[in-house]
Amino acid sequence: MSEQDGRITGAQSLVRSLENAGVTDIFGIPGGAILPAYDPLMDSTRIRHVLVRHEQGAGHAAQGYAAASGRVGVCMATSGPGATNLVTPLADAHMDSVPMVAITGQVGASMIGTDAFQEADIRGITMPITKHNFLVTDPAEIPRTVAEAFHIASTGRPGPVLVDVAKSALQAMTDFAWPTELQLPGYRPITKPHSKQIREAARVILEASRPVLYVGGGVIRSGAHRELRRLAEFTGIPVVTTLMARGAFPDSHPQHLGMPGMHGTVAAVAGLQRSDLIISLGARFDDRVTGNLDSFAPHALVVHADIDPAEIGKNRHADVPIVGDAKEVLVDLLALLEAEAEAGRTGDYEQWIEFVAGVKKRYPLGYDRPADGTLAPQYVIERLGAIAGPEAIYASGVGQHQMWAAQFVSYENPNTWINSGGLGTMGYAVPAAMGAKVAMPGSTVWAVDGDGCFQMTNQELATCAINDIPIKVAVINNESLGMVRQWQTLFYNERYSNTHLDSKRIPDFVKLAEAYGCVGLACDSEADVDATIEKAMAIDDRPVVVDFRVHRDAMVWPMVAAGTSNDEIKYARDLAPKFDEDDL
Q: Are the beta carbons of 332 and 225 closer than 8 angstroms?
């Protein structure tokens, strides 16, 4: 489509707007309502479009792209089923605070509300699961709407924004004008914390005997890992990092107690339960962390810092509420504590540090080798982390393999652990790894997937092979929906209803990988694990899929059963840890 007398089509305006917003990569699939936008997109020299095989893959790829790079991920789909296939990634991104913009086509403005072919009210459908969304019927509004969408997605608490554009607006002629300033009177995210609340936080920190830094995904999203480390090392306070915060604080650091919650370390769970002060940074007291909320950390005061005021006090009362960006909170808090130290006022946590260090030493993460000589899935993931190293990026599906990947890979850097935390979306790993590799082409990217998850979205291997996106996939194949089977073992009298997948027989994952233009490898012996991983690591010109055929009944431990108190954590199936509280 050519420009006429300075005027362009709405579709051309959309592409130009995306370029002005700094977009370099889009994941999507064309269709009728969005088709006008795909014509000028072909002429863009600044935007690479990756043609996925399913819109869900486009959405998860945009998430992986954003989580690995910190930049806004972008996906595009047509109206109706194209748009509704983005619902799961949008809900996922909303739960995990991922900056993402979804562009969808809509039927012509005059046809909206008539049940036209491929019409769906995607704005109404996604209103509860997006940070904001727009319906554009006037082509003149396209540049401003796109600018606002990217601003909203990436500022404050990040999240997904949907821009639904009527086909008539894409086809109409318009003038292009990129806004020089945005007018969003109802949107003023607070990043700078209130000094009075910082002073109060410093006071309770200095008065506490058993403080814990409870670190959530907000610290990753704000890029505050350096500030976190400075505060932790200055105070000596123990640190726990949630599932979404793995890598925010180095696993190798002696102050790190590990991940708290349902499948967290005994030290992290005990540290929170026995604390007298929880300093929560960008975390939301999720039920998977707290267990039974009434019995969670019963003697602890709470300093709750979050950029989203709606999170503060939502689940647990905050004694010191702080609204602000995690990085700015940490900077201000450290400055005040340093000033207090110069005046001779510091906290005394020596006995507490000794207690949690003792728990950490007594109850390390571990696992048993299967008695029948089959392959332990934990061993596979442990060796993968050791060989690929802490500079690699790990994207996980959901289930047992997700927990083992969170437990047995050592994370030293932020933005290297990508997973579906809040929504728990099976099928997340492969497309998210694809997006991460596009964003960070110089990094090794492993998708750690289960045989159940892998069969939901493995069609994106075709996308990776065709578009030279050489991800690596470790399929932890136990022939089961493993986490569901674990619950059936523990709580349903070993009645395994509809959890057997027969994945070591159908499909043949090696042949499937080869059919998709990838390298397929298989491993079922501990003796071959290292060599298999190293072989996969040496291949950089194509995607690699490794079928790790593991023991079927391995379980994730420790475990706090859903709805029970964290005090009831089991270190193994028949072993509950014991703490000598007289040491405190």
A: no
Q: What distance in Å separates the CA atoms of residue 191 and residue 149, rounded to the nearest whole number? A: 19
Q: Which residues contact 81 (CB under 8 A, 6 or more apart)?
A: 118, 120
Q: Quick one: what percent of the chain has pLDDT higher than 70?
A: 98
Average pLDDT over residues 187-194: 96
Q: Tell me what pLDDT residue 579 has.
A: 74
| Separation between Cα atoms, residue 77 and residue 500, nearest integer Å | 34
Cβ of 197: how many Cβ atoms within 10 Å? 20
**Strand 173-174 relative to strand 8-9, pairing:** antiparallel
Record the pTM.
0.97
pLDDT of residue 163 exceeding 70:
yes
Task: Work out the average pLDDT over 179-208.
Answer: 96
Active-site positions?
55, 117-118, 167, 483
Strand pairing category for 393-396 and 417-418: parallel
Domain total in the chain: 3
What is the 8-class DSSP label of residue 153?
H
Going by C-beta distance under 8 Å and a sequence separation of 6 or more, which residues neighbour residue 285? 293, 296, 314, 315, 316
The pLDDT of residue 147 = 98
How many residues belong to the chain?
Answer: 584
**Ramachandran bin of 316, using left for φ above 0, alpha for ψ from -120 to 50, beta for the remaining angles:** beta
- Report yes or no: 249 and 215 within 8 Å, Cβ to Cβ: yes
CATH number at residue 317: 3.40.50.1220
Closest CA to 437 of 95, 60, 105, 92: 60
Domain membership of residue 557 (yes or no) is: no
Contact 169, 10 (CB under 8 A): yes
Q: Which domain holds residue 88?
A: 9-174
Task: Give the residue among 70, 407, 445 at the shortest CA–CA distance from 220.
Answer: 70
> Which pLDDT tens digit goes with each residue over 273-328?
999 999 999 999 999 999 999 999 999 999 999 999 999 999 999 999 999 999 99
User: pLDDT at position 581, please?
Assistant: 59
Same domain, yes or no: 402 and 531: yes
